[in-house]
Specification:
Jelly Rolls, 18-stranded mixed β-sheet, globular, mainly beta, about 15% helix
Length: about 325
């Protein structure tokens, strides 16, 4: 009888763990399925690009694979190409392998990875009168925002809104991940973010360097937690900037190859080093890591097999 009871307890414990795991993964699984319906049914794709309404608010800096632009009239879709202008009300949709980096007129950069959709809902940049007001509606997926800090402006705001959250900044570098009913917001270096739930926009949660929060539908932002070193490296790898873009300024990459006995060194924002391929002949050392830190202005060096270096945390002033 005791054996049967223990067996039942084991089964119930296993079922409970599976249930909890499914709740954690559900927002992201749902998002993956939902991404397939991002492009409106019956949308006609035009080969010849036609401009949207009003003046251009920015341009496409770089694009990979399939990315679709839809103007505010929602009549047609256009395949994104480098240097095409962007307009207020444009929707940008990256498909399965699509990726895009945009540059707004105020100097801010937005990077979208696959299966992401945003709408450039509002954009005012009046340098002469010192006014900047931008609103990005993020429908689904993952995006990085490097927002230019403007000095001497009378009014400057930049907001990103999802189904569940609102992030307000003046000059910041941050990541937004959103799926139906769920949003994760993470601040990167030299960043201060005001995060609120769409349920209570006046109740603010403040994020500083390398902090994050989660906002579920119908709830306030979760308690702030630190972004781990592993997550920082994942973010930098996933949101690598295009060569020559603002995010890659000040970066140096030497011998970026893969394979045994190859030394790779990277310094600067948006850079990476594949130092795990270094092998010392005749040595039994499995790997060495020096200054393993995630702080700004920290130098991280790794040598040996299966080692990692967070060289992306080096900031060049």
């Amino acid at each position: 009888m005791m054996t049967n009871n223990r067996l039942k307890e084991t089964i119930l414990t296993g079922v409970f763990k599976i249930f909890v795991l499914s709740l954690i993964c559900l927002p992201f699984l749902t998002g993956s399925l939902y991404a397939k319906t991002l492009i409106p049914e019956g949308l006609v794709l035009k080969d010849k690009f036609l401009p949207g309404k009003g003046p251009s608010i920015g341009k496409i800096y770089s694009v990979q694979a399939d990315v679709i632009i839809i103007h505010s009239d929602r009549k047609y879709g256009y395949r994104a190409k480098k240097n095409l202008p962007l307009f207020e009300g444009d929707t940008i949709i990256t498909q399965d392998n699509g990726r895009i980096e945009t540059l707004l007129n105020d100097g801010s950069t937005i990077i979208l990875v696959p299966q992401t959709s945003i709408e450039l809902s509002g954009s005012v940049y009046d340098q002469a009168n010192g006014i900047r007001s931008s609103l990005i509606n993020m429908i689904l997926g993952k995006a990085r925002f490097l927002v230019t800090k403007l000095t001497g402006f009378k009014h400057s705001e930049f907001k990103v809104r999802t189904e569940t959250a609102i992030a307000g900044v003046r000059g910041s570098d941050f990541i937004v991940k959103t799926s139906p009913g769920f949003t994760e917001i993470a601040a990167l270096a030299k960043t201060s973010l005001e995060v609120a739930s769409t349920l209570s926009p006046d109740k603010l949660t403040i994020l500083s360097d390398y902090e994050k929060t989660f906002v579920e539908k119908g709830a306030l932002p979760s308690p702030v937690v630190k972004v781990s070193a592993e997550e920082i490296n994942q973010i930098r790898n996933e949101f690598q900037a295009s060569p020559g873009s603002r995010l890659s300024e000040g970066s140096v990459i030497i011998n970026r190859f893969s394979g045994n006995n190859v030394t790779n060194i990277a310094i600067g924002k948006g850079s990476e080093a594949n130092l795990g391929t270094v092998r010392v002949k005749g040595s039994t050392i499995k790997g060495a890591v020096i200054n393993d830190s995630t702080a700004t202005n920290a130098s991280n060096i790794a040598a040996g097999t299966d080692t990692k270096a967070n060289t992306g945390s080096v900031v060049l002033e």
